[in-house]
Specification:
Blueprint: H1 25-36, E1 46-50, H2 54-61, E2 66-67, E3 78-83, E4 86-92, H3 97-109, E5 114-117, E6 122-123, E7 133-142, E8 155-157, H4 160-165, E9 177-185, H5 193-201, E10 206-208, H6 211-221
Parallel strand pairs: 1-4, 1-5, 7-9, 9-10
Antiparallel strand pairs: 2-3, 3-4, 6-10, 7-8
Length: about 220
């Protein structure tokens, strides 16, 4: 990677974390609504990112999901569904760090208050046979998006208060929920044997493509 004159690499240069972005998600949604003739409608307070698309496809197949025709994002589709007495929004096939945060920014600008990302991942530690879930406590920042939100560090951290509230929440589920750290990468087809061995040796449980960026976005934007 080419270095700048000050010795920094481009992805770490000219990052002014205290400054507001000149390009705001709310402005993009406003102009999209204007161009498409859409109504202003808030998304549900709880939304789900479904990078694999399996959840939203099943909800649609079972007649439980309704397309939100007023979702103004140029790059995604939002469905709504109800579980119990709670309405959720869900966006399918949001694969990769940059796309996940692009959509997350717009969801929060449109009324989301809690965002959950559920995706498949590659197993690094042979803890147990799949299926099982991992509640990601921290994610190694081997992608690019997080560095636009937070200064350089090894990991993005989940909010400690959120983790505390989840203590015991998954007890009794059919599939176990483990907790630990993962490796977030932008390039799944560049996971070399030596890179995998290094991440495994560090005790990382799995490799995925979104968590480090989403956690950095959450920390930076509060």
């Amino acid at each position: 990677m080419t270095e700048h004159r000050d010795g920094s690499v481009p992805i770490l240069a000219n990052k002014h974390y205290a400054e507001e972005s000149a390009f705001q998600p709310g402005n993009l949604l406003r102009e999209a609504r204007r161009q498409k003739g859409l109504a202003v409608r808030e998304v549900p307070a709880i939304c789900v990112l479904d990078p694999d698309g399996d959840l939203v496809r099943r909800l649609r197949r079972n007649g439980r999901a309704t397309a939100d025709r007023d979702w103004a994002c140029y790059h995604s589709e939002l469905d709504r569904f109800v579980e119990g007495d709670v309405e959720f929004g869900i966006v399918g096939c949001v694969v990769g760090a940059s796309y996940a945060v692009l959509v997350a920014e717009q969801l929060f600008a449109a009324g989301c208050r809690l965002l959950i990302s559920m995706t498949s991942s590659g197993q690094l530690q042979p803890i147990r046979p799949p299926p099982y879930f991992i509640l990601i406590e921290r994610a190694l920042r081997d992608e690019g998006t997080s560095y636009h939100y937070l200064p350089s560090s090894e990991f993005s951290q989940a909010d400690a208060g959120v983790l505390a509230k989840l203590e015991g929440a998954f007890d009794g589920l059919r599939e176990p929920v483990l907790s630990g750290a993962t490796w977030t990468t932008d390039a799944p087809f560049r996971e070399t044997e030596r890179a995998i061995a290094a991440m495994t040796a560090r005790g990382l449980l799995a490799v995925e493509m979104e968590a480090a960026a989403l956690y950095a976005f959450a920390q930076a934007c509060g």
